[in-house]
Amino acid sequence: MRIVSGKHKGRPLAAPKGRDTRPTSDRAREAMFNVLEHLPDSPALSGARVIDVFAGTGALGLEALSRGAAHVVFVENNRAALDVLKANIQTLGEGANTSILPIKAASLGMPNAAVDYAFLDAPYAKNLTEPTLHVLATLGWLNEGAIILVEVAQSESLTPPPQFSLLKEKTYGAARAVFLRFFR
């Protein structure tokens, strides 16, 4: 697994052993970021603030940093994934541009600053995505017009809360990427 584009292009990322963490493949990540960069009226990724929930290895958030994002908040509570996430941040020298919240997504509090992009890649079939979208919206994590990339199992249903509009859906192997926009 590697960073696909930007200032860290080609740099390797570690992943924890076992099946608890399911990193997004390089190809799928590249395709997802291509969609993000070409959505109409999207905030610029350069200088953006991002939250990567259920971060795992941090591949999505670190890809955003490589492509010019200013700051990424990583939310992850799995101990093995946290260790790998910290190592990946250190390997890329991105410690000053990141924050780690070692908590469950449901435990998120009020943010220091709202974000322009949110990435959610919850464990499949655990019904964590919709409640997390609700938490992000109600606690002020999302700027008006923020773009949310949600990764779910291809067969998993997703009904976003009313303040989210569906922009696009794409299938990548066993995963389905759902692109949403937030409105207050």
From TrEMBL:
InterPro entries: RNA_MeTrfase_RsmD (IPR004398), SAM-dependent_MTases_sf (IPR029063). GO terms for biological process: rRNA methylation. Residues 1-11 have a biased composition (Basic residues). Transmembrane segments: none annotated. Residues 1-25 are annotated as: Disordered. GO terms for molecular function: methyltransferase activity. Keywords: Methyltransferase, Transferase. SUPFAM superfamilies: S-adenosyl-L-methionine-dependent methyltransferases. This is 16S rRNA (Guanine(966)-N(2))-methyltransferase RsmD. It comes from Magnetovibrio blakemorei.
